[in-house]
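Render this sequence as a predicted structure.
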Amino acid sequence: MGITITDTMLPQAYPFIAFSMFVLGACIGSFLNVVICRLPQHQSIIWPPSRCPECGHQLSALENIPVLSWLFLKARCRKCKNPISIRYPLIELTVACLFAAIWVRTVQADLPLVFLPGLLFFTTALLAAAVIDVQHGVIPNKITYTGFIAALLAALLIPAS
């Protein structure tokens, strides 16, 4: 028994929630880019803040808006003018679309919303693992161990999962 969306709530809330999931996914995708870049190099994913990989310029809040900043900056660092890989907005858009799609499928399948965080987490972790594996030929243990612990907790706390 969990929180469910009733048929009377769905028509009004559906577009707003789907859009919100898209925006949340883009933001998580932005962070996922940091994970993908730093984790294989055994760097902190928290500190220092986002920066240009070429010149080290720390990005301002306006330079760190998912997808839009890449477009406004014309795919170049504001300071050194070196190109910014298209991978950054592609990851952000991919996660945004995945989050919106997972929301839609969760509602369509009439799954309890308590499953949603786990579905979003595991999807994001799998995407990070896949991209890192393609680039470096390795899946970091931090992703594997975190996924294992999260799956174990989900199984214990949400038996229906």
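Summary. The chain has a mean pLDDT of 91. The helical segments are 10-38, 68-72, 87-108, 116-136, 141-157.
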